[in-house]
Amino acid sequence: MALSAGMIARLTEELSSTLTGGRIDKIQQPEQDLLLLTVRSAGENRRLLIRAAGPNARIHLTAQNYENPAAAPMFCMLLRKHLTGARILQARQPGGDRLIVFALESRNELGDRADLQLAVELLGRAANVILIDGEGRILDCLRRIPPNDRGGRALLPGLRYELPERPETALRPASEELLPEGSISAFLDARYARQEKEELRRRRSQELVKSVRRMRDRQERKLALQREELRRTENMEDVRREAELLQANLYCVRRGDRVLECQNYYLDDQPIIRIGLDPTRTPQQNLAARFKEYRKLKGAREHLGALITDGGHQLDYLNSVLDELNRAETERDLEEIRAELQRTGILKAPRQRKTSKQRPTEPMRFESADGFTVLVGRNNAQNDELTLRTARRTDYWLHVKELHGSHVILCCEGREPSETALRYAAELAAYYSQARNSGRTAVDCTMVRHVKKPSGALPGRVIYTDYQTLIVQAGEMQ
């Protein structure tokens, strides 16, 4: 939501009282539309955030940290040239509009005083930051606007800076705004930090989903091609029989023959069969070529069978990851899924300096009405940890039947699980799965000692025996 003129009036007062007399020590541009100015004022370093981006356009003091690009953009370099060491003389809001203009005192290359202005226009999509010299001419701006662009005013270096036109509708005064009584900057910093963090999580989630979906689709196409190749080997036995019939009747074949007609002794009525020959080859060469074709088809069939099996497991795993991403709730959840994909080699791990290893998140923990603890895995790697290392052999393991979902462990601690606890754990297994909104759902349940992980299997994949199936209502958990 864009800042109102009333909110900006309060901000202008706060920034003027806090920053007037302060010196600009550092200027950064972490993103295309984001500027950070470090101001030394009253013995403290304060960071002024300027965001010139649509509905999030704003200005306030911040405590947030942002990562800088390897090379500073040109506009940032220009601001550093003119504003590093400059003092803030005043912050004002011309005409009560949605902009703040800072009057600055700087020094030029010769050491002489240079009066400058920094105009921060918070006009929604037209938000901009403009550096103005002492004569009122534009030195440069974050977004250059050529003449007659969409009927708006031009903003280019060398042009005289003109204030934007005020909207025809009257602006509400600050007294009518529902404004916080504490620091406006602190209020906005906390509010937008949460909003941008959620937006970042959503964007990273979409990027990760897009990457995994692209790999899933590629794997599906690869499997389809392999299955088509496998289908072409279905005549393998026919080729072998023709080779053996040719071998049995090789004495009848002469070089230059195009067809061999002989009895097919593989069938009871021994019908006449026609076997095509290459007239440029000798009988022995035709025979060798036919057996070679058979061996090739046989080898391809065995190889393709293994590839299709492995590819099916890979496809199943990627679909399970997509299900996890759909249920991921925090940035930490996304990071753990990304790390899992990097460990399995599906995603390439980026080169980065060594950092302290983050402790993995704990599985979700619930408690049944009669006091049994239930643990639910958040991702495939955590499912493995939960089932294969955390759970006791006498605990109960639950998983939605024939769909992707979390591993669920009903912790028994030597007790016999109650019907209430089993049903509650089954409902959790249905809820944290692809069947969340599917109504009545089948959930398999067995003791942990009956759950095994195949050698070399991808994260989250297990096999189990001696199970019972419970029918529960999915989507009931709150």
Describe the protein's topology:
Elements: H1 5-19, E1 23-31, E2 34-41, E3 44-51, E4 58-61, H2 74-83, E5 87-92, E6 99-107, E7 113-121, E8 128-132, E9 138-141, H3 184-232, H4 236-248, E10 259-263, E11 272-276, H5 283-327, H6 331-343, E12 364-367, E13 373-376, H7 380-390, E14 396-400, E15 408-411, H8 419-431, E16 440-447, E17 451-452, E18 463-464, E19 468-473
Antiparallel strand pairs: 1-2, 2-3, 3-4, 5-6, 6-7, 7-8, 8-9, 10-11, 12-13, 13-15, 14-15, 14-16, 16-19, 17-18
Describe the protein's architecture and organization.
The chain is α+β, with helices and mostly antiparallel strands. It has three domains: 5-167, Roll (ibrinogen binding protein from staphylococcus aureus fold); 200-348; 364-473, no CATH class. Helices cover 35% and strands 22% of the residues. The chain contains eight helices and 19 strands. It has helices spanning 5-19, 74-83, 184-232, 236-248, 283-327, 331-343, 380-390, 419-431; strands spanning 23-31, 34-41, 44-51, 58-61, 87-92, 99-107, 113-121, 128-132, 138-141, 259-263, 272-276, 364-367, 373-376, 396-400, 408-411, 440-447, 451-452, 463-464, 468-473. The strands form five sheets. It has a six-stranded antiparallel sheet with strand order 12-13-15-14-16-19, with helices on both faces. A hairpin with a 5-residue loop joins strand 8 and strand 9. The longest helix is centred in the middle third of the chain and has 49 residues, at 184-232. The chain is elongated, with a radius of gyration of 36 Å.
